């Protein structure tokens, strides 16, 4: 018996049970995993400190659930299909058997290099199978991984290594992204000048970029593997972990402030990612699933590695970018590997949509059955394009709302099971109890309302602390409202009780007493055929309280003024005159984090005319964009 729910009635029943008796509900789900010893208590919690413990007293190792337990029935099933950056290079397939063998080998390597249970290991690798292998090998030995996205600078890596006091770094000589080669090892060398805690660096060969190896510190991945191979017995018994032993640290993307080292623990995270993967995507045993995220982000942790593997799925992992060699690359991958489930981000959808439909010509997308979106509110136009052009009009879209801190998806339709509305994340998953709070700290119980989104009750995948600073965790998430986890997101619940995320709370504007979500205005602007993308922020306005400032990327063909007028008309028609931007500034590009999120706090500063202190911009993809926007903004003064 599986824990997958396949009808809407069954969803409702599961949801009701998860609220009336959460411990019985999650206890039954946990029975579908492999434990070395069962728990004594399903849940102990308080949101004051906070102190959250799931499946206390149990012993397990997550890699036995992701690998060993599939070997007898499914050992030859592909676990990972890896698609390289360059389509001319051969792809790689790792079956469950092969992946387990590689993870065990590399666990030996970690052990030989003095890594012990509880040690922190920084992983800074491109999207190659060894990234998944290294991650799982850490989990096998009980070391805590901290994966740092392969696009980050030396400074960002050093900050993260120092925060977690990592003992070992795993990197590669270089990595390929589109037509660029990233010199990862050189960047690590720069970072390590500032890091005292690192004793050892393991370097994988990928790009054959020349590197300098520091004697006594740096070793090659391949050399370490050959040493292990000569040792004989290659099995590596999985370390016995407590339920609440930390599994990993992952830093948030930093779109609202300095990144936080979010800590996830073992048992709850495993149960939650496995359960949500199976249910949200309605994964069937023969399906090929492709999540386009990078393992450097939570989406990759939960829905490329741990969730799919714990469910015995086939997970496609892509090294490159959606626009290399051209904007048809995702569709080529779908056709080549006969992808059934595609999980991607609005930022990718919008950018591919802007390249035009010619990149879809002659692409065989007939294998697609289900689509997913994550990372930002998805605007209606992008939703419709995704549905029609990629899903052929009949593949359900699941718009999944969640955060690094959540471990897994919290609000989303179950693909093909729950109803959908473009731009809506719809309903909470079983076990998730969302609520909307007003400015006075009161819960709003009615429908057709907007409020600050909180979660009332623990779910197994939630964060336990922020590394080295429990007080920051308490302050950031558990102090705004008593006994609630505060998400920081604004949300609209429609008359039927369906949820629509409107963006960050500080992105909800108050214009002449009307609450307007930035996403709503962006949605309307993006409907204009010349507009590629837009970002809305508020700024102090002497009459309205807040004015609306729009940054717009558009092909206005030199007719700026006409396009502006058309945009204003579009907004008036779709939302009303109240939502008309006071300022429209055309920009070449928007400041985005490396995970593709718009850094609205910078745009807000520019709109406010405060141009001195932009805070931490180290996670920006291209910091030079900020100067260009600033120049443009001067012209509006
Ligand atoms: P930081 O917390 O450091 O500012 P971040 O919040 O950008 O970084 P993530 O945890 O990756 O880092 O992003 C979570 C946020 O992304 C959510 O709080 C929400 O604002 C947004 N988000 C994610 N998925 C969706 C979705 N499906 N619809 C709307 N918004 C989404
Ligand atoms: Mg956040």
Would you give an account of this structure?
The chain has about 625 residues and is an alpha/beta fold. Helices cover about 30% and strands about 25% of the residues. Helix 7 (about 155-165) packs across helix 8 and helix 10 crosses helix 11 (about 300-310). The longest helix is centred in the N-terminal third of the chain and has 17 residues, at about 95-110. The protein is globular, with a radius of gyration of 24 Å. The termini are far apart. The mean pLDDT is about 95. The structure holds adenosine-5'-triphosphate (ATP) and magnesium ion. Magnesium ion (MG) binds next to loops. Keywords: Acetylation, ATP-binding, Ligase, Nucleotide-binding. Belongs to the ATP-dependent AMP-binding enzyme family. Its EC number is 6.2.1.1. This is Acetate--CoA ligase.
Helix-strand layout with pairing:
Layout: H1 8-20, H2 22-30, E1 41-46, E2 51-56, E3 59-60, H3 62-66, H4 71-74, E4 78-83, E5 92-95, H5 96-112, E6 120-124, H6 129-141, E7 144-147, H7 154-164, E8 168-172, E9 175-177, E10 180-182, H8 184-192, E11 200-204, E12 218-220, H9 221-229, E13 241-242, E14 246-251, E15 261-265, H10 266-280, E16 288-291, H11 298-310, E17 314-318, H12 329-337, E18 341-344, H13 346-355, E19 370-374, H14 380-390, E20 397-400, E21 434-437, E22 443-444, E23 449-455, E24 465-466, H15 470-478, E25 485-493, E26 499-504, E27 508-511, E28 514-517, H16 518-526, E29 531-541, E30 545-554, H17 560-574, E31 583-586, H18 600-608, H19 624-635
Parallel strand pairs: 4-17, 6-7, 6-8, 7-14, 8-11, 11-12, 16-17, 16-18, 18-19, 19-20, 30-31
Antiparallel strand pairs: 1-2, 3-13, 4-5, 9-10, 14-15, 15-24, 21-22, 21-23, 23-25, 25-26, 27-28, 29-30
Helix pairs in contact: 1-2, 5-6, 5-9, 7-8, 10-11, 13-14
The chain binds adenosine-5'-triphosphate (ATP) and magnesium ion.
